[in-house]
Design a protein that fits this description.
three-stranded mixed β-sheet, mainly alpha, three-stranded antiparallel β-sheet, 15 helices
């Protein structure tokens, strides 16, 4: 069972491709050049593995379950254009069987007494709080390097990523085997999430970008389930959402407790034992509360959560925050836009054009009770 937190991210393929071209396409060398090359070659291999969904559907050897899911993907892709006003382009109209569990593996890191993620800076994308690898071994090697510097690290598989539309001229981002068989509600939510990144992207603001895409996935996914899905799919999604929301509530509370503890950090050179004790107590309490929460969940639905909880650290909590911190604000903005997708996107684009400080202040204002109410006609 996949983890239902920290679902999505994107490696820096568009930036890597540009960098590699500028560097003459050299395939040798380590450091940043080696990183960019693995991004380019990994993405190109993924693109080469993709073929049109109609071709997969027509193949005699395509398993019936996959054939039906690809037809569902085609319907969801059309729904994304017609109902959600997401981009009508080549992305997610082809399918690739990667024969592995993840599209990429992300590395995140944070200091021992902070949830602020370590950042990497790239052309086009700006500075982001993760670094993606097409090789799990390479991701773990980077994690070991960061851990040796005293950082807390996490490595996790990512089922899909977006190249922000930069690859549409050669076929666009393909649908992947890493998530094609997910439950219908989760499947369409991820598809809409990734397409949202092609609609609006604020350079260097991971929190804004991921929260926006998550909001689009949630709202659009609910709209799909309400109008397009079977009763069984709706029931399955409702049970999954209940577990996800309960878990998010627990992690939000734990995150707030950790932030409060770290804010009381003594000056450099002073004893950190009390701080460390409070941190350990909070993490232990988190794990005990999770065990009680999940005790009634079906075993098949717990695996991803169990692994996340067992390995959770500052990097894990910091990465999770990027995907849900501003989601309620974007949901409020959607309501203030009279639930009209074009108006909503225009409002989000206006925020993306502002400075990070300005847009975060605007999002914070949307979280106030008065701001959540749509304007009166």
């Amino acid at each position: 069972m996949r983890p239902l937190v920290r679902l999505y991210a994107r490696p820096h393929t568009a930036a890597a491709l540009a960098a590699a071209l500028l560097l003459g396409g050299c395939a040798q060398g380590g450091g940043e050049l080696g990183y960019y090359w693995q991004s380019v070659s990994g993405h190109l291999q993924l693109m080469w593995a993709a073929n049109a969904m109609d071709d997969w559907i027509a193949r005699p050897g395509t398993p019936p379950v996959l054939r039906e899911r690809l037809r569902l993907a085609q319907r969801a892709r059309q729904f994304a254009v017609q109902a959600l006003h997401l981009p009508d382009n080549p992305s997610y109209r082809r399918y690739a069987d990667l024969r592995r569990s993840a599209a990429v593996w992300n590395v995140v890191a944070a200091p021992p007494y902070s949830l602020q993620l370590h950042t990497w800076c790239f052309p086009v994308l700006g500075c982001v709080g993760y670094r993606g690898y097409f090789s799990q071994a390479a991701a773990r090697a980077e994690a070991d390097r960061l851990s040796a510097q005293g950082l807390e690290v996490d490595v996790y598989g990512v089922p899909a990523y977006s190249t922000l539309g930069t690859m549409n001229w050669i076929g666009g981002d393909p649908l992947l085997s890493t998530f094609v068989h997910w439950p219908e509600g989760d499947f369409v939510r991820l598809l809409f999430h990734e397409l949202a990144h092609q609609k609006v992207y604020a350079e260097g603001d991971t929190l804004f970008n991921e929260s926006f895409a998550t909001a689009v996935g949630r709202i659009g996914g609910a709209q799909w389930l309400r109008t397009q899905a079977s009763a069984a799919a709706r029931a399955e999604a409702a049970a999954s959402d209940d577990r996800r929301e309960a878990f998010r509530r627990l992690t939000r509370e734990t995150r707030a407790q950790l932030e409060q503890i770290y804010a009381s950090k003594p000056p450099p050179g002073q004893d950190m034992q009390a701080l460390e004790a409070m941190k350990k107590e909070t993490m232990q309490d988190f794990r005990e509360r999770y065990a009680a929460l999940a005790s009634t969940w079906p075993a098949a639905q717990r695996a991803g959560y169990d692994h996340w909880v067992a390995t959770a650290n500052n990097a894990s909590f910091g990465a999770q925050a990027a995907y849900d911190e501003w989601v309620p604000a974007f949901e409020a903005l959607f309501e203030r836009s009279a639930r009209q997708w074009p108006r909503f996107y225009d409002a989000v684009k206006a925020l993306a054009d502002q400075t990070p400080e300005q847009r975060h202040a605007a999002l914070r204002a949307l979280l106030t009770p008065a701001a959540k109410d749509p304007p009166r006609a």
